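Figure-free illustration: sequence to structure, shown twice.
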Amino acid sequence: MRVAVLGAGGIIAPAIVRDLSDTPGIDGLTLLDLDGARARAIAERHGGGIATGAAVDARDRQALTLAVEDHALLLNAASYRCNLEAMDAALAVNANYIDLGGLYHLTLRQLRLHDAFEEAGLVAILGCGAGPGKTNVMAVRAARELEVVDEVRCASAGYDEAPPPDGLAVPYALQTLLDELTQAPVVVRGGESVALEPLTDGGTIAFPEPIGERATIHTLHSEVATLPASLGAGSCDFRLALAPPVESALRELVAQGTPAGEVATVPASARTWSAQHVAVRGRRRGDGAPTTVTVTALTAPHVGWGLGGGIVSTATVASATARLLARGALGAVAGVLPVERALTPELLFPELEARGCVITMSIDTTNEVLTP
């Protein structure tokens, strides 16, 4: 299967390319980016001899369509802002599609393309990252312990054990981070979607060590767009725990209204860790007792790849989805699907664990309500 990777010069794509270059059934990778030199450099460093790089502007629909011809899959690791253009290109060339998320509102628009993909016999799997992505499937696993699901709370955090860098090191695209911090977070409460103020306090969460307990903020995320319907939950939200120096710097940029294009960033170190925390509350199977099921995931730095856990945590969900698709493990799926309706824990978790992710689950019978 030939795979085109859009946004190949970005923060996450190198780990996707590195992972897919070792995947049986993937016999060619075409790396596409606005910066062609960067795409070619990623192909040389991480492509395992099966990758080539080229320049393309995803906003040029004709150029993008021509670039992804003769590929079975378009894996979009570029900005979520070009998700619809990328889906149009995939449809035009009869290719399947994967992306890393649509930041809630765009995800809802993407889901409207379900009939077009289904009629073409293609599948588009949305939100195949750490969060959304891993978090969605973690929620599915937790929900299996419950007869009724009332609440789903998803969260992500990162930690860099290297000394603080000279400059702003961000875990993923700066523009996406700024969007998350400036756009109103949407939560679901009592079955209704509610917009909160940006930067609303999300409380503290005990993430796995070495990250530990961290303060969080509510941010706009795609889990909230799909998990309530998928799991029948009346409440759902997403919270983000940024490293304090990074959050402080981003808050300053937001306060000043500084455009992302005017900010110089530096790469995160190869010593970052990533954690996801998903708590699902409802009624336990069998006796109906109020129960909270918590699933956590921790991704360590990947020494062999020379890439930090923050990058690997997101990238390996996308590459695992591509790998499962290549070997026919997803079955005859078609249409536009959120990741929790395309992947099962049994399919995804072993793929992630083989790449350094540790997933744990705990069950607590309690009357405590997770949300105020």
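We now fold a second protein in the same way, so the two outputs can be compared directly.
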Amino acid sequence: MARNISERKPNVKNERSHALNTTKRKQGLNLQVVRLEDGTRVRMSMKDKRTLLKNQQAA
């Protein structure tokens, strides 16, 4: 079972129709299951995954 390590939460915003009616809408994160070097599986957002890969390549 993968666990979440990201502290990020979904964005909550208003959806506006052409008649300017408002409805609450939740925009979820793009969560991916990633296996770390020590073998643990974690769920992180794609933005965090790209940052992790960028830092690994720089080192």
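Summary for the second example: DSSP finds one helix and five strands in the chain.
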